[in-house]
Write a structure and sequence with these properties.
Radius of gyration: 19 Å
Strand content: 15-25%
Helix content: 25-40%
Shape: globular
Length: about 325
């Protein structure tokens, strides 16, 4: 079965990405807001752009910004939305964003293609509880599909091709005894999946919160927890920067790391505030938001789980060469 082509960054060569980074990279630390509205160590505030996906996963950064964790370190975050990590990677490398949020597979693909990225802070992890995770493979309530094996010959939506969600769907289909090569994967933004599933334009959707709660609210059901099928307590995504920015602005990276770590810890222990902040950057109704399953926000990535994810990605032919996790991870 023919499958759609890869998204933006997969087609970028290392040369073109490096050229873009050289042409567009940030050249100094004075940044955006110039020091009139904050009190960092230098007496000013540096504005940094962060490429994010508008999902529950990134709530800690919005919450940390609100609580002043970044301002205390002289940083002001500006957020830009994208459909997935595959679209954020070239934005970070070109200097459009100083930092970005991406699933681990997209980061490993980039690294294996010699795209100069460096993970700097943990993002999110699976809860490790099947049926009680922030992600799920879902179908309509009246769908004849009972198991991932039944998705052979069916159309399944993921947010971007060649990312962690593709690996996850394939892992669940394989675990259920099916052939993942017989599943038709199509790209669709998370927030568009509930309507597409309800209208029958797709047979299944690999979703994360808050789209998962929306699908359940409209009568949909889960047939698998694919991230858990990859590995228990999987590190799903991390925050990253370009190697160029990390080398030229180590103090900015350190401040971002410290503020992000504080934000992750705060979010993990204040779920009610997480749900409240999600309403500021998504359109999810309050009654649906109350049903959202939150991910885990641990301080450190799970290296063993990432290694398992890398093995699956390699088996699926996602990498030109084996990713160097020692170079990629903090």
């Amino acid at each position: 079965m023919r499958r759609p082509s890869r998204r933006l960054f997969v087609g970028l060569t290392a040369v073109s990405v490096l050229a873009a980074a050289t042409a567009c990279g940030s050249s100094d630390d004075s940044g955006g807001s110039g020091g009139s509205d904050g009190s960092g160590s230098s007496g000013g505030t540096t504005e940094v752009e962060v490429g994010l996906i508008p999902i529950v996963d990134v709530a800690p950064l919005y919450l940390g910004q609100k609580k002043g964790f970044f301002e205390e370190r002289g940083l002001k975050l500006s957020f830009s939305s994208a459909q997935g990590g595959a679209a954020i990677v070239p934005g970070v490398v070109s200097g459009q964003f100083e930092f970005g949020f991406s699933n681990m597979t997209s980061l490993m693909i980039a690294q294996s293609n010699n795209v100069p990225v460096k993970a700097v802070a943990n993002g999110i992890a699976s809860t490790g509880e099947v049926g009680k995770d922030f992600e799920a493979l879902t179908v309509k309530g009246d769908s004849p599909v009972k198991s991932p094996k039944d998705l052979e010959g069916k159309k399944v939506a993921i947010n971007t091709l060649k990312n962690i969600n593709e690996t996850a769907v394939r892992a669940s289909v394989r675990k259920a005894g099916g052939d993942p090569d017989e599943v038709e994967l199509v790209e669709l933004a998370f927030d568009q999946m509930p309507a597409a599933l309800d209208a029958g334009r797709i047979d299944a959707a690999m979703v994360v919160e808050p789209a998962l709660a929306t699908i359940k609210n409209q009568g949909g059901r889960e047939i698998a927890s694919p991230m858990i099928d990859i590995a228990p307590k999987l590190t799903v995504a991390m925050y990253f920067t370009s190697i160029k920015y990390a080398q030229e602005h180590p103090e900015m990276v350190k401040k971002f790391q410290e503020a992000t770590a504080e934000s992750l810890a705060y979010a993990d222990s204040h779920p009610d505030e997480v749900r409240e902040i999600v309403t500021t950057y998504t359109k999810i109704p309050a009654d649906v938001l109350a049903k959202v399953t939150l991910p885990k926000w641990p301080a450190e990535p799970n290296r063993a789980a990432i290694e398992e994810l890398a093995k699956l990605g390699e088996a699926d032919g996602l990498f030109k060469q084996t990713p160097d996790l020692d170079e990629l991870l903090p």
